[in-house]
């Protein structure tokens, strides 16, 4: 070493030796230390790599792998935390996004799968393969304890619907305005629900579909109609159950025979092919929609909360799509050209009043070439007119350019025109007049009704949908009528969303055993293009989905209905228009990260608890800070929460929160 150092003297300066320079000595020492540390680190890195490669690799899935039940920090199950797998350089990297390497939109991507054994051990509350429950004490989790448990509301609120049972706001309604007391009047800010709605005494887990079409538990719907109206035939009491015979005051020979009669009157209706989406107005306990499901028709039953205020609750308990709404002063919360068929049997609506303003709303929602069926029988009413005479109805529909196809007994069937040619050929003095060009027929949130006819799009959008089931996956033309940033890539976004959710739900079906849950009433709280609902259909989950389009985003409702799906516009800062204990599953993808800037997330979670059935589940996918906040609220609601990382690992910004509302 001494010789080596001596030889490193400057040759052109023989009198200057580097060995006598303090700086040179420091450089030599640091060099040797660096070489020594390099070999130590290299050996240590090799050991780590060897260890991790013996661990099973993680699956490529955005919302799977690691879970942390009852905790706010992410950890693995049973105290066996596998170190994060290190990807070798030679391993191929699977792309999981919808943007390719050139920045272009593509639907060629891989989502991945769940680790089913790991998920099962967490969700079923087992540790190390035993039945030791994954319980949490009151001190676990950094965010636990910031919110106390919510109190239970008074027993009188067990069927409370905030926007329809708001006594304070209803007292201010001008009763001289037709239907004003039947519309929604939500609590003002700061006066919303702050407690948990109690379930009825002796409440039981619902009867599974399709058996629930014919019978439900009496204790689940304590306010029963046969207590008020003896001798009715549409619902009967049998022991501890309510029985639905399928006949009664509306369909003397039965609902199926009534549907057969309609098909014979107008074969072109073609239930399940040309006619996929229907609306049943004031349809009692929704037997019309219940029996149409056997014919591949999805029917939304609507009614008001009035003297028969539990009809919609009966429909939902049966497992039939239904909502509370009223034909009154505002547009219904559905888009233009939404329904292939609209049905009114003894629906207690005076269609020809006020220059036909209510039938004009039906005309707006009815698809071009769609059918309106009116079964005109007198019913008990609290107005001066029992029902609109057929002669008045025929006169109004003629001015609307509807074609009367068949009139048989008390059943009349009209068809809406396919284009504007009839509208434009009417004499100028004919009323109702045409609406202005700038009147958006899909603008429905808090929009007043108008006595004018909405013109149909000149490009045929809405009228040129394919038949079912092809329309479920055929990108509709109305994709291009949505107000959004993307233009040329809309079809690609549509297809990518469908593929993404198909693979996600496939993972749910395997890992979370969705086919064993008997899901029936499902809600997608931020539906976008309906990929979630389409995936449930494709994977043979026998359920229906209420696709909610929030007012805070783009209005994709026309696309949903063109696909053959049901949906509604809603503002999640307000309560939803349904009874408590309505849905088996609530799904919210990236909802809270958007709405938290507008709404109180605790209020939204309380509303979710109100409409969720005991035994139901909530699936929330959102960013890490949002999920941590929601997990805390879930504990306060009394849910049993489970949190999962994405396949990207614990540092990914997206998490999945599952909440179980156990009975």
Automatic annotation (TrEMBL):
From the UniProt record, give one GO term of the biological process aspect: methylation
Which spans does this entry mark as compositional bias, Polar residues? 64-77
Residue ranges annotated as transmembrane are 23-41
Ranges in coiled-coil conformation: none
> Where does this one sit in the cell?
Endomembrane system; Membrane
Q: How does it sit in the membrane?
A: Single-pass membrane protein; Single-pass type II membrane protein
One Gene Ontology cellular component term attached to this UniProt record is: trans-Golgi network
Where are the residues of the annotated region Disordered?
62-89
GO function term, MF aspect, one: methyltransferase activity
Pfam families assigned: Methyltransf_29
The keyword Transmembrane helix appears for this protein: yes
| Record flagged with keyword Transferase | yes
Q: Where is the signal peptide?
A: none
EC numbers, comma separated: 2.1.1.-
Enzyme's top EC category: transferase
Alphabetically ordered keywords of this record: Glycoprotein, Membrane, Methyltransferase, Signal-anchor, Transferase, Transmembrane, Transmembrane helix
Similarity section: Belongs to the methyltransferase superfamily.
Q: What is this protein called?
A: Methyltransferase
Look up and give the organism this protein is from: Nicotiana attenuata
